[in-house]
Amino acid sequence: WVFRGQQDTRWELKPSLERSACDRVGLRPTAMPNIEAYLLTRFQRNLHRFQDRTPAVDDQLEWLALMQHHGAPTRLLDWTYSCYIALFFALELAPLNSTCAIWAIDQVWLFNRLKGRREARVRKAFRLDAELRVPGAAHILLNTKATTVAPLVPYYLNERLSIQQGVFLVPLNLETTFMENLRAVAKPAELRKHVLKLEIPVIRSVQYQMLVSLDRLNVHRISLFPGIDGFAQSMQLSPLWWHPDSYRA
Q1: pTM of the predicted model as reported, rounded to 2 decimal places
Q2: Quick one: what percent of the chain has pLDDT higher than 90?
Q3: Collapsed DSSP state (helix, strand, coil) of residue 162
Q4: Residue 8 and residue 189: Cα distance in Å, rounded?
Q5: CA nearest 16: which of 57, 66, 53, 71?
Q6: Which tens digit of pLDDT belongs to each residue from 176-216?
Q7: How many angstroms separate the CA atoms of 241 and 199, rounded?
Q8: Is the dihedral of CA 174, 176, 179, 185 positive or negative?
């Protein structure tokens, strides 16, 4: 199983590219392939200015993963193999008296559904590599336009993806939404068995205790986002907010 924590149970599953293009700008999903191509080309042409190593030109998945890592909008949706990390992201900044959620998807089932598809490009990708880890296989798959979702991990892992035990769920038909791609994987009755959502009421005392327990498991901003950024972000929900006596002179 793979997991994703969301601060609000009302939120649908949406990659950052879909949120930027459709929700914020008001474009139709059919515009997303052209937007992705433009953003990818721009990122590829400028990355050498900021770091020495660049992915192979044809390793589209690693390029998109690197863009995602640094905050560019992509079609990739972040998931994790760790239910504890998903719980942290669901609870960390969820407002009091709201309801957050953990989504869970049976990755083995999803992979087998993908493997059973009849599209020529999908079959070609699996012939090239049965695990879809070879860059060429992922590149073929990302350009199939099949209305489905694929669980993908780049061959070369960046630091954050490795630390957060990350995996991407990727909509292959970029001309429609992530949720429509997911709903097309199987009939509703089968989806209900393999796609789950756990809703968690955000109660002050319970939220605090759960975050403390996660902290003791080394699941917190500092461990998940190494460096000064993670350390500074960890202060957003420091224990001092819960216990005023801890910061009084």
Answers
A1: 0.91
A2: 69
A3: helix
A4: 25
A5: 71
A6: 999 999 999 999 999 999 999 999 999 988 888 899 899 99
A7: 25
A8: negative
3-state secondary structure of 79: strand
Please count the other Cβ atoms lying within 10 Å of the Cβ belonging to residue 102.
20
Q: Which residues contact 11 (CB under 8 A, 6 or more apart)?
A: 101
Residue type, 192: R
Structure tokens at 157: 């892992």
Using H for helix, E for strand and C for coil, what is the string for 100-157?
A: EEEEEECHHHHHHHHHCCCCHHHHHHHHHCCCCCCHHHHHHHHCCCCCCEEEECCCCC
Closest CA to 166 of 222, 57, 89: 89
| pLDDT tens column, 94-146 | 988 999 999 999 999 999 999 999 999 999 999 998 888 888 889 999 999 89
DSSP character at residue 98 = S
